[in-house]
Amino acid sequence: MCNLNPLIQRLAMFLVFAILAENQCFAQRSLAIRNAKIETVSKAGVIEDGVILVRDGKIEAIGKDVKIPLAAQVIDAKGKTIMPGIVDPYYVVTVGRDAQSAGETRTIVVRGQTITVPGGPPSSSTSFTKISDSIDLDNIDWKAATRSGITTLQLVVSGYAQSVIVQPTVKSAQIVNQDGKLLVSVTNSTPSLELLRNGLRAPGSGPGGPRPPAGATPGATPGATPPVSPTQKLWTEVREGKSSLFVNLNNAATILHCVAATKESKQAKLVFIASGSDLFEASSDLDPKSHVAILPPRIDFVPNTRDRINIPKFLSEKEMPFAFSLSLGQNEFRAQLDTPLFAVSSLVHNGLSRQRALEALTMMPAKLIGVDGEVGSLEVGKKANFLILDGDPFAATTSIQRVFVEGKQIDEN
């Protein structure tokens, strides 16, 4: 018996340490944010005085009466608002062939003011780039994105490429999907227009006889079945409606060229990246079933006038789907880091539906880039990518206080 007591004591101490270690591990993995107004951007709508429970980087529970585990880290967000992390569907970066022109600038007119922005106009290069093969995430400054509440980005380049989907981390960023969407920049130049037309045209069809598909190997033996290249596979998915084609356009005329090209491929869905004014000018030719718009959030001018117009509201009334890219207006993007939603709030105060504005920042771009099953709304099972704001998202002075990606805080203001 005298030898048993020390053994029992050692076993008891072992159990105590094991329980403490388990609770500590649970506390590190479990986070609860309570007393917040939660904009879920889902069927649940707005939850007042709600709780989000996060475990292992995903939302484990969300609602008013969520039981908070004793070992969880708790943040009291009374008086604050939580919304899904912003998804930017067209975040331009420079890689490989674009590196030499990274220092170039161009002058454009925005809201009657002449400003200088980095980079030239959309490139008409037909040289294909798979961005994931040539990008160095550690050499990109993500500070502007994280301070703006962007938690998922589709990285794109000018010209002809395949995008990559990334999410920021505390120090850099990580790839979520290296096989993103097909990207084409279209100008009035013949090569860029032909690249689009040939890509959307089924192999062997079209005026002038059979045409090789975009990305076909030159010099292939006639009659032989050539191997399918990566670019051919991407174009096939676009033609069959399995994946959207992202088209960067520099004027209203190129939008009309793209609309005409779409008619040759009935199932293709095109995502137009353009200014609000150009989209307005070409609006009568846009088809809500085949076309989606990505545009910067701003009040534009009616073409050839000084009359201001809320293009997102106009598109919404036409039932034309659209998404915002905060980074498209680079000067405004970096100037409004303290209040990144100010431009969107101006659109809401001038008639754009609040719900459409939230969706254009989160769920719609998530759908466009194919990650809506993981991000874009606050629902059980999705990644815990969200923002804590000090007020209503569309109040003029609201700022983002904290940014979370997979339950980890990556930025604090």
Please explain how this structure is put together:
- This protein has 413 residues and is α/β, with parallel strands linked by helices.
- The chain has a domain at 85-204 and 229-377.
- The protein has eleven helices and 23 strands.
- It has helices spanning 4-29, 143-147, 190-200, 230-239, 252-262, 276-281, 311-317, 330-335, 342-349, 354-361, 363-368, and strands at residues 30-39, 46-55, 58-63, 73-76, 81-84, 86-92, 105-110, 113-118, 128-130, 150-156, 160-162, 164-168, 173-177, 182-186, 245-249, 270-273, 291-295, 300-301, 308-309, 322-324, 386-389, 400-405, 408-412.
- The strands form five sheets. Strands 1, 2, 3, 4, 5, 21, 22 and 23 form an eight-stranded mixed β-sheet that branches. Strands 9-11-14-15-16-17-20 form a seven-stranded mixed β-sheet. Strands 6-10-12-13 form a four-stranded mixed β-sheet.
- Helix 3 packs parallel to helix 5.
- The chain is globular and about 90 Å long.
- It starts with a helix and ends with a strand.
- The relative contact order is 0.15.
Largest β sheet strand count, sense and barrel closure:
8 strands, mixed
H/I helix tally: 11
Strand content: 25-35%
Helicity level: 25-40%
Mean pLDDT across every amino acid position: 85
Give the terminus-to-terminus CA distance.
Answer: 62 Å
Derived structural class:
alpha/beta
- The dominant shape is globular
Identify low-pLDDT runs: 99-123, 207-211
**Oligomeric state as shown:** single chain
Question: How many whole angstroms does the radius of gyration measure?
Answer: 25 Å
Number of strands: 23
